[in-house]
Design goal:
- 0% of the residues lie in helices and 57% in strands.
- By secondary structure, the chain is mainly beta.
- The radius of gyration is 16 Å and the shape is globular.
- The mean pLDDT is 94.
Length: 181
């Protein structure tokens, strides 16, 4: 578990997740994603269980803008899924709300066929952090997606869970991506 501060987000005294946009948040934050990507991923074998064994796998992603630029969508594909050991597909729909200046990222995959609760947030410079409340193994957690735009042809993505309202985080999935088209 690591200590990584929440950015533009906090847990209120009533236990609500309060997320505010960065001063520079815009509908163009994810424009860098348009195109085709090759990804080297790794996922913890077990989550929130002090596991240190990582399972590597490769994937591709095809990203496009939608809704006149206030959204984007990607199709994620891998021949190997570390959960089911079968081919794997996922879809992300990212929507920018012009009123709140926040992004909502919705994920669904071929393991479960349901849309996860959206992670919500914005970019602060080249780093985007997006949060939501969720449940893992029957216990409440916070989820964080972190995007790092290293340059126009490379990015880093990670997912972390917090069982203690953001005091500590366990990174359980990462992706290093390189544009190929």
């Amino acid at each position: 578990m690591s200590k990584e501060p929440m950015v533009n987000a906090k847990i209120t005294s009533t236990g609500e997740l309060d997320i505010t946009p960065s001063a520079t948040s815009s509908k163009n934050d994810f424009d860098f994603l348009v195109g085709k990507w090759a990804m080297v991923n790794k996922r913890l074998k077990m989550r929130l269980n002090h596991c240190t064994e990582w399972i590597p796998f490769e994937a591709t992603g095809d990203y496009n803008t939608i809704l006149n630029g206030i959204g984007n969508i990607d199709i994620y594909k891998s021949a190997f899924n570390p959960v089911s050991n079968k081919p794997y597909e996922g879809i992300t729909i990212r929507l920018f709300n012009p009123q709140t200046k926040l992004w909502s990222l919705y994920w669904a995959d071929s393991n479960y066929g349901t849309m996860d609760p959206p992670v919500v947030g914005s970019f602060e410079g080249n780093v985007g952090k997006f949060y939501c409340k969720d449940v893992f193994n029957g216990k409440p957690i916070l989820v964080m997606f972190k995007w790092v735009k290293t340059d126009k042809d490379n990015y880093l993505w990670s997912q972390a869970f917090s069982p203690d309202n953001g005091v500590t985080w366990e990174t359980n999935s990462t992706s290093v991506a390189h544009r190929f088209k």
